[in-house]
């Protein structure tokens, strides 16, 4: 599984990182960073949950 | 009793989060979602911005899809509830549940007459219609200067339209406090927006399409397009007479419970606030967090944690990114923790720097999670992850 973050759309609310801190982080400009190029299978469900909660739909999951 | 069939009524972020939470909590029964929307769950946040401006389409707002095994019924409104038979009524027939999550949200409040085709912005379809309207007009009048009204004004200005906002009180003051409210209004006015105060409210004029408003003192404001952004009403009418407690929304307890095997979350709910009054909190974060709490109490009863709203609100308009934690409408002058409003970026706290009850970041890159930790008593009121 991969997660694509649209950093232009990201508004830095950080709800993804609240749900899945192992997968998402905000950088110094409060823009999202995806921590894994390939999401480890144990974290897939959390990564999906983190992506779904984005209020600006900036995160897309693909398998 | 172990739940085998959970029905979620609603099709927006609270419903989606409820489904997500059921799966995270290893619920392995059947999940049915009844949504009256045309589209699968999407975010309303970009409707007043990218969608209105024509930059974003359905693909940009639809949230990541539900898992295949979730039974999602679109264009399926719930029309009634039989608590005793544990059944939701729909035009397609009754749907039985062991556990029910009500997340039917809210709809735009309207102030026009039945003969008027009042323009509002709540659904994706509303967004498309207003986008097309905006292409055809040169002047826009926005009734209501809350977050939504001011965001619409911002986008309309960005598109080069002549924009007026009319409200009962200075826009945003009751949300962001007078200091930040005044700052945002000044930026909006520099961008060319006219702000008009109409004590006592306005009446929409023109049928079927309103093209003016009239203030109580007889003053008329005209525009090619009049948009109402005057708040929202909970979608709770379908529960009248069902036995579900209603008082300006569905009354939920401290664990988001409504009655045995029934919980509710999001814009449709009212909850007791610190001073005991029942209030709604129609916001994205509340919908998400309340849905999580509601599902946990549906599954675990009293063992689930009580719901403590984190109260995070934001707005993006006129190049300003405003993020706020704590109860809306901070009173008095804030302490400046960093930067300054005049310089364009500021971190402000009320009532003082030592014991903040509210913190607002204006174009300031402090992540909201950090803002929440700054609040006095943050540790006490934080929800367990």
Automatic annotation (TrEMBL), chain A:
Cofactor dependence: [3Fe-4S] cluster
This protein's UniProt keywords: 3Fe-4S, Electron transport, Iron, Iron-sulfur, Metal-binding, Transport
MF terms (GO), sorted A to Z: 3 iron, 4 sulfur cluster binding; electron transfer activity; iron ion binding
All residue ranges annotated as the 4Fe-4S ferredoxin-type domain in the record: 1-29
InterPro entries tied to this protein: 3Fe4S_ferredoxin, 4Fe4S_Fe-S-bd, Fe-S_cluster_ET
PROSITE patterns in the cross-refs: 4FE4S_FER_2 (PS51379)
Record-linked Pfam families: Fer4_15
Gene3D superfamilies membership: 3.30.70.20
Name of the protein in its database record: Ferredoxin
């Amino acid at each position: 599984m991969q997660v694509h973050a649209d950093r232009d759309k990201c508004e830095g609310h950080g709800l993804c990182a609240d749900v899945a801190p192992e997968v998402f982080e905000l950088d110094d400009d409060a823009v999202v960073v995806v921590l894994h190029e390939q999401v480890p299978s144990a974290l897939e469900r959390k990564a999906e949950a983190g992506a779904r909660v984005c209020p600006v739909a900036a995160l897309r999951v693909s398998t | 009793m172990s739940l085998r069939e959970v029905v979620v009524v609603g099709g927006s972020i609270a419903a989606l989060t409820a489904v997500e939470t059921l799966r995270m909590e290893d619920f392995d029964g059947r999940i049915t979602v009844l949504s009256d929307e045309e589209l699968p769950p999407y975010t309303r946040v970009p409707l007043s911005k990218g969608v209105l401006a024509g930059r974003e389409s359905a693909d940009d707002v639809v949230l990541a899809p539900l898992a295949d095994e979730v039974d999602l019924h679109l264009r399926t409104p719930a029309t009634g509830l039989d608590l005793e038979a544990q059944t939701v009524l729909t035009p397609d027939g009754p749907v039985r549940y062991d556990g029910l999550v009500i997340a039917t949200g809210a709809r735009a409040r309207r102030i026009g007459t039945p003969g008027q085709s009042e323009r509002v912005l709540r659904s994706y379809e509303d967004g498309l219609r207003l986008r097309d309207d905006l292409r055809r007009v040169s002047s826009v009048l926005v009734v209501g200067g809350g977050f939504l009204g001011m965001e619409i004004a911002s986008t309309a200005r960005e598109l080069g339209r002549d924009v007026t906002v009319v409200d009962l009180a200075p826009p945003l003051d009751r949300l962001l406090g007078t200091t930040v409210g005044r700052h945002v209004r000044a930026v909006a006015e520099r961008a060319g927006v006219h702000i008009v105060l109409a004590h006592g409210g306005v009446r929409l004029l023109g049928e079927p399409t309103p093209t003016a408003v009239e203030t109580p003192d007889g003053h008329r404001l005209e525009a090619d397009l009049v948009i109402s952004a005057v708040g929202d009403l909970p979608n709770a009418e379908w529960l009248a007479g069902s036995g579900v407690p209603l008082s300006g929304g569905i009354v939920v307890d401290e664990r988001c419970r409504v009655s045995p095997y029934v919980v509710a979350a999001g814009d449709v709910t009212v909850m007791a606030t610190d001073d005991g009054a029942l209030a709604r909190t129609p916001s994205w974060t509340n919908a998400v967090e309340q849905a999580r709490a509601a599902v946990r109490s549906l599954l675990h009863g009293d063992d689930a944690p009580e719901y403590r709203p984190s109260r995070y609100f934001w707005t993006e308009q006129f190049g300003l990114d405003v993020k706020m934690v704590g109860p809306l409408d901070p009173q008095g002058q804030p302490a400046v923790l960093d930067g300054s409003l005049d310089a364009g970026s500021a971190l402000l706290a009320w009532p003082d720097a030592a014991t903040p009850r509210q913190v607002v970041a204006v174009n300031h890159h402090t992540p909201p999670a950090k803002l929440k930790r700054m609040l006095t008593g943050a540790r006490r009121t934080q929800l367990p992850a």
